[in-house]
Design goal:
Blueprint: E1 7-12, H1 15-23, E2 32-35, E3 43-46, H2 48-51, H3 61-67, E4 72-74, H4 78-93, E5 99-103, E6 106-110, H5 120-138, E7 142-147, H6 150-160, E8 165-168, H7 173-177, H8 190-198, H9 204-210, H10 212-219, H11 221-231, E9 247-258, H12 261-281, E10 285-295, E11 300-311, H13 314-326, E12 334-345, H14 349-357, H15 367-371, H16 375-381, E13 392-395, E14 399-407, E15 410-415, E16 424-429, E17 435-437, H17 482-499, E18 507-509
Parallel strand pairs: 2-4, 7-8
Antiparallel strand pairs: 1-6, 1-7, 2-3, 5-6, 8-18, 9-12, 10-11, 10-12, 13-14, 13-17, 14-15, 15-16
């Protein structure tokens, strides 16, 4: 482990929800919950104001609605989140060539590798400037942890939340870790935590005192050794810039079980095409096609087929997925389907033969092909135009806005932009031709020489757990919940005070 706190961990604060609040002035300071809005949806992110009511990521959406009935419930805009994430990651890569993204909103940075920091003072300055740059470029806040290892940097960023900076001074690590819950350490989930609690091990200090032999006896050799080392603040893992992708997959959870075998087949074909689009976007191909089916009784079946060579041909993936589906009994209904490709490579055997034969490469049908079809034709193909809650629209007379809710042939829109005051609400027929989907607007106004890219496709992908069909609305109440805003501010204060607990003399907060 290094001698200076030059490993930085950045974690954006309630990222998806914060993007929505920055986009929508009427939601600032109010409870916002982003996720699948269908009956089987789950929470992707909850704002700090919503967390006051007990709403957390991965919570079933139905339970979230019971806990926070007046919150704003929005369908994710993943394409827009990716564009904002790209801006943040660009700032990180300006600091060092060693940036290890963990997700859209989280990454490690080796500041020493880029010469950006070499001691406590320079690391603190870099962390403070990074937070300021993120706010200037995106209008959002992020929490920064600085320490001599990845594990400690991540713990520091958790203590810094929301919108703070915590630096753990070398030499104080064990004293800092000792009073923390064993669940603080990576690799200690609910099951391991309960197992340790039953034998009287509650804190990291208890782990260290138990000794390596006892932990190996309780948890097995690999896990026992690893946890004992972490309890002593030992973590020699390096920041890795490139992580090898092991598989590419997509899956959908359906609001209502699918019983029609033909419909199941159609969904599998659609998922196969989506999977191939992701493969090609990453410049990859794969040999093993995987089908995942979760049935009505929650039993999950996985089937796979390995091809002779890697492929990114949509027809090949579709055919393999269809063969795999033939071996699965879907009697009783299907609640989730998924298609994946593993055994990845950066070339395709089929491409070599196709090039030799002079055959053009064919793109799989999907969003790209659909975009080439006139809007009127696509609308006629469906029974009713769909307006996902939270997504961007533009009206010929009223300008830019976002969908607050839809159903029963009506769509309610709030007309406002990131830089405006809270806007007014108007309701239209879902087939009103003056109302059209729109690209998201930048969160921060750019100068004349800056990019005007607002984030691409406003629809993105609606996630795995529902997409706001059938009358789902953004708000329980039109103007949100004032009490949520007040409690949210209190939550920020309490989180800030918790950050320093047990580490007053050892951790300096920026």
């Amino acid at each position: 482990m290094r001698s200076a706190p030059t490993v930085l961990h950045l974690d954006m604060d309630a990222f998806f929800a914060s993007v929505e609040q920055a986009s929508k002035p009427s939601l600032r300071g109010k409870a916002v919950i982003v996720g699948g809005l269908g009956p089987r949806g789950v929470v992707a992110t909850a704002s700090y104001e919503a967390r006051v009511f007990g709403v957390r990521s991965a919570l079933p959406m139905a339970q979230a609605r019971r806990l926070a009935p007046n919150a704003a419930y929005l369908v994710p805009r993943f394409a827009f989140y990716r564009s904002i994430s790209g801006q943040v990651m660009e700032l990180l890569r300006a600091l060092s060539p060693l940036v290890e993204p963990l997700s859209l909103d989280e990454a490690f940075v080796d500041l020493e590798a880029g010469g950006a920091a070499w001691d406590e003072r320079s690391a603190r300055l870099v962390g403070a400037k990074l937070r300021a740059d993120i706010r200037a470029v995106t209008g959002l806040t992020g929490s920064v942890g600085l320490a001599a290892s990845k594990m400690l940097a991540k713990i520091a960023s958790e203590q810094a939340k929301p919108d703070g900076l915590v630096l753990i001074e070398p030499g104080t690590e064990r004293a800092l870790l000792a009073p923390l819950s064993v669940r603080t350490l990576p690799g200690v989930g609910p099951a391991t935590g309960d197992h340790l609690r039953r034998v009287g091990i509650h804190t990291v200090g208890d782990l260290a005192e138990a000794g390596e032999d006892e932990l190996v006896r309780l948890l097995g050799k690999a896990h026992g050794h690893a946890l004992h080392a972490m309890s002593l603040a030992k973590d020699d893992r390096s920041v890795v810039a490139e992580r090898e992708t092991k598989s590419v997959s997509v899956e959908d959870t359906y609001d209502v079980d699918i019983h029609d075998r033909v419909r199941v087949g159609v969904e599998v074909q659609r998922l196969a095409d989506r999977c191939v689009r992701r493969l090609r976007a990453a410049g990859l191909s794969g040999r093993t096609i995987v089908l995942k089916v979760r049935r009505y009784d929650f039993s999950t079946l996985t089937r796979s087929e390995t091809l002779r060579g890697p492929t990114d041909d949509p027809a090949v993936v579709r055919e393999a997925a269809a063969r795999l589906l033939d071996s699965v009994d879907t009697t009783g209904g299907v609640r989730l389907l998924g298609v994946g490709v593993s055994g990845l490579a950066d070339y395709t055997q089929e491409d070599l033969f196709a090039q030799a034969a002079g055959e053009p490469d064919k793109e799989p049908p999907g969003e790209e092909a659909e975009a080439a079809v006139p809007v009127e034709e696509r609308q006629q193909a469906g029974a009713e135009r769909r307006w996902p809650a939270g997504h961007d629209v533009r009206h010929g007379e009223y300008g830019h806005g976002w969908v607050q809710g839809s159903g029963l042939g009506r769509v309610t829109v709030r007309f406002e932009t990131p830089g405006s005051a809270p806007g007014r609400v108007r309701t239209f027929r879902t087939d009103d031709r003056a109302l059209q989907p729109a690209d998201p607007l930048p969160l921060v106004e750019r100068g004349p020489g800056d990019s005007e890219d607002g984030g691409g496709d406003p629809s993105g992908e609606n996630g795995q757990d529902g997409d706001g069909r059938g009358g789902e609305g953004a708000h329980g109440g039109a103007d949100g919940d004032a009490r949520a805003a007040q409690d949210g501010r209190a939550a920020r204060g309490s989180q800030g005070s918790r950050a320093g607990t047990g580490a007053v003399a050892r951790v300096r907060r920026g």
